């Protein structure tokens, strides 16, 4: 077996994801500047959430969880991986076309399910109109996810990781161009979404064709392999559905709260999605095919090493990021979004949600490390069952606290549910064998990472006070200095107390270990 270069894969995917997230901040800063937290901004949030919600069913649910392990094992065993991929593409495309037509017809019902608080005001009609324009994005992005899965399973991560960058570029250019030409920015923004989906699909389709997987849709056939895929995909898609129900509950709570609440949660989500995307997405994309191929080859020791290094990598980057979101949320939000129609009061209310999401950030990332242990063994039922329990936690907390703390209840509920899901995944892996146990290196370094993160948090707290004169002169300069102090301080402390070894990390990247 030619192993996937694990650490190099993390760095490749994480690097491109970081660029995508940074450009995502540019996109959202433009949305905040042009649309503020007004009706058009909230209608856009709901409309764009709809194709993204179904994308998680078909792309992250069916493809990442069910298709990638099966394809990786076929590729490793040198079976007819291309034929399996073509048949999957045909079934997926057919289902997505039907879904798009139905969603266009029943868009008012979908918008009402997403934000019932919009009913009766201008936001509802605007969200329905926007939703019909944006929804075809799910067709292009889900087809693209299949090609991305092929690339990831064969150890080629760059093109699939780079494709999402196009979404933020296309949307940002559309807004700036519309503003310069005197056209409605909100219309340009929403029409840019399906255009971006076509661009993303084209990139991964071409990349897959270059390595011999130039797939062409054909008449779908219900082969034994496809039946197996559907059996695995069912619980995975249902688990994704549970996650979407959690998001729906949060949006419903926010839609009945104060004006602008949906935008506050949306921008807070964007900020915590930066470390979540860079670390968690990188781990989820790289670890699953690697574990699947190692288990197919009977390499239990290699599977244990991959799992432990993924966990270490997650903790090393996620815990300090969570600490920063908890300690300095307001400078970060103000720097990123406070301009134009987005006021200091809007920034403060968004920062409160960021703090709460920060408490849950390590849990969101740990899920991405633990779930591949199940999916690589073709067990999608256990994560689905655990997701149901997490959904109950989310619903009880969100609805119960909404009468006390308003829109912040959605963030609190998400955090509680995330930690509940981690606990269930952790204790549910007991019978999997030695490859899911922590090795000596992970046991030694975990408490040191926690200590380094706590010390960094104290450093950030003191530095924010010390830099107050700089913030008065320039909010941007003060925030950049604060971030630089946090990064340099954390890695210096981590190195001094043995939480990380730079020489060792550099060697891992070079070897691809």
UniProtKB/TrEMBL annotation:
Pfam families: MurJ. It is a multi-pass membrane protein. The keyword Cell membrane applies. HAMAP family: MurJ_MviN. NCBIfam families: murJ_mviN. Involved in peptidoglycan biosynthesis. Transports lipid-linked peptidoglycan precursors from the inner to the outer leaflet of the cytoplasmic membrane. This is Probable lipid II flippase MurJ. It comes from Celeribacter persicus. The gene is murJ.
